[in-house]
Specification:
Layout (H helix, E strand, L loop, with lengths): L6 E2 L49 E2 L2 E6 L6 E7 L14 H10 L5 H4 L5 E8 L12 E9 L2 H9 L11 H13 L7 E7 L15 H13 L2 E7 L6 H11 L18 E2 L4 H11 L7 E3 L13 E4 L2 E3 L7 E5 L2 E4 L1 H9 L3 E6 L2 E2 L6
Parallel strand pairs: 4-5, 4-7, 7-8, 8-9
Antiparallel strand pairs: 1-3, 2-16, 3-15, 5-6, 10-14, 11-12, 11-15, 13-14
Helix pairs in contact: 1-7, 4-5, 5-6
Length: 364
């Protein structure tokens, strides 16, 4: 989202983990590391070895700069409502349930992270046999983009379920989202956050699923109208080169570029199957929406408030101050009062700094 925000974050020992699989693109697999066994008690003195001393690992580092445009972004959530969204997505639930929880959960979800002043809308899309079924295509459930629509979006999304026999006309869904965003006035940058789980079809040909060229064309048309399409694959069925091509097209780049090989290629984005981690991914994807909640990307710790150095447009923000900032949890800050109002209005540059600290030594 270089058009709206340049965000640099150096979080020790962390990375986004959003790369998707495909030819020439290694798939990032979640790792679960077993804790080391506890050392047995002993009366023996420690052994002296020739092993060199190692520098302690460092953690808790934060170096973030957000450079905002003069107006907040406008986001349309475009969500696949096809029947396959009811399939399992890891051990915690279906694709639909995991994604919906990541967005609507009242404490940690994407909508809770957005401020009430954010301009956000919702479109759920599917079809029943396209034009062949005799009904509308695409079938759309919509909440218009407007300021203060967060609760409307949450309510509409909670009321819906996947369409059991629903298809995936993604290209036509993007076109409908563009039509809605084109009606929103002002100079705010506009984004479509597309969340889908499989190969698209079209209204003209609902079966087989050969609609990827049309989806790529629709993403390119959107970009030509000043609307960026950011695609997140909510299963391994949409991964590899198809997800790569959608990522490139939505950013106005040649679809054939490959992340990790071509310098200008966009990273393909695959959803995590844990709702909270997926929520964090989505916050990172649309992090340029103006918000007073700041995700740090690493655990800093609630007791380090006096070590933080925050400034907004060159003015220092004080910790635990009505017009300054405070911790929400170990890895999230909240900007308060006049400082928050400035971010939401015309603030241009927020800087967040925490020094590194030594990590506790691992048991040996």
């Amino acid at each position: 989202m270089a058009a709206s925000v340049a965000m640099a974050s150096l979080a020790c020992g962390s990375r986004s983990g959003l790369d998707a699989a495909g030819p020439g693109i290694p798939e990032a697999q979640p790792l679960a590391l077993a804790p080391p066994p506890a050392a047995l008690p002993t009366d023996e003195p420690p052994l002296l070895t020739d092993e060199p001393l190692r520098a302690p690992a460092m953690t808790g580092c934060v170096d973030i700069t957000r450079s905002y445009t003069s107006v907040p972004a406008t986001v349309m959530l475009l969500i696949d409502q096809s029947g396959s969204m009811d399939l399992r997505f890891g051990p915690l639930g279906t694709r639909w349930d995991i994604l919906r929880e990541a967005i609507v959960e009242p404490e940690t979800g994407l909508l809770a992270w957005l401020d009430q002043s954010a301009e956000v809308g919702l479109m759920l899309y599917t079809s029943l046999d396209g034009f062949e079924g005799g009904g509308a295509c695409p079938m759309i459930t919509r909440v218009d983009v407007q300021v203060g629509s967060v609760e409307k979006v949450r309510g509409a999304y909670l009321a819906e379920e996947p369409e059991p026999e629903g298809d995936t006309p993604t290209g036509e869904g993007i076109d409908q989202a563009v039509i809605q965003l084109a009606r929103v006035g002002g100079a705010a940058p506009k984004y479509i956050l597309l969340l889908t789980d499989g190969a698209p079809d079209t209204c003209a040909q609902p079966d087989p699923q050969n609609g990827m060229p049309q989806a790529i064309d629709a993403a390119e048309r959107a970009f030509a109208q000043g609307i960026r399409v950011i695609t997140v694959g909510v299963s391994q069925e949409l991964s590899g080169q198809n997800l790569q091509r959608m990522a490139n097209a939505g950013a106005g780049k040649p679809p054939e570029l490959r992340y990790g090989q071509d310098a200008d290629a966009e990273p393909p984005l695959s959803a995590n199957n844990d709702p909270r981690q997926l929520a964090d991914q989505l916050k990172g994807v649309i992090g340029d929406v103006r918000t007073c909640n700041i995700e740090l990307g690493t655990e800093v710790g609630l007791g380090r408030g006096l070590e933080g150095r925050l400034s907004l447009d060159g003015e220092a923000l004080d910790y635990d101050n009505g017009d300054g900032w405070s911790f929400v949890d170990d890895d999230t800050l909240l900007i308060h009062g006049a400082a928050c109002e400035k971010i939401l209005a015309d603030g241009e540059r927020l800087e967040v700094r925490f020094p590194c600290i030594s990590a506790p030594p691992s048991p040996r």
